[in-house]
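Chapter summary example.
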Amino acid sequence: MFKTLATLIHGQSARAEDRVRDAFAIELIDQKIRNSETSLRAAKGTLASLIQRQRSEAKQRAALKTRITDLTERAKEALDKDRDDMAEEAARAIASMENELAVRDETLDRLDQKVMRLRSSIESGHRRIIDLKQGAIQARAVRREQNMQMHMSVNGLQEGAVDEAEELISRVLGKDDPFERSEILQDINRDLAGDNIADRMADAGFGSATRSTPDDVLARLKSGKK
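The structure predicted for these 226 residues follows.
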């Protein structure tokens, strides 16, 4: 029983966490990008320090090689002049410097490897951050579209409301024109009362005209009468 309750509570907490993550997805993405950029800046600083140490070690190694070469030449001259004592002293110094050179060579090799690995990681991280920023732009566009859809739905611009509005428009446009109906009724009433029989007979050519026609107006214009 307790195990079942614990499972249900855990599931509810997971769903609540998912809802929070969905609601603040854009903010979380931006925060992850900021964290990644902070880590990248720190990595760049470390790389700069490693490169600086690498260059310093390379300079010291080059100077040590120069000293070894110079002292070797001097030791040879001392041997040529039978100064074995000075040659032996030079040999001891050369041996010590060669041991130091071996240590610096090893140190420089390790630095080279660290610089190479860290530089590769920084380049990869830089590309990933660019991808993250592009993804964030797309996520914002999707979120804006989702918010607009929700806004339209809340304000009644969903499919059902549009269909209902279109139906109402069709009903209004489909109704008979009351003014036209009134004119038709008046014509019917005049016909029943015989009021327009004279007009119809005049139009048929029986008797004088009872009303002006377009032909009358055109004839008057042609004759110059007003």
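To summarize the output: The helical segments are 2-23, 25-80, 84-154, 159-174, 178-193, 197-203, 214-223.
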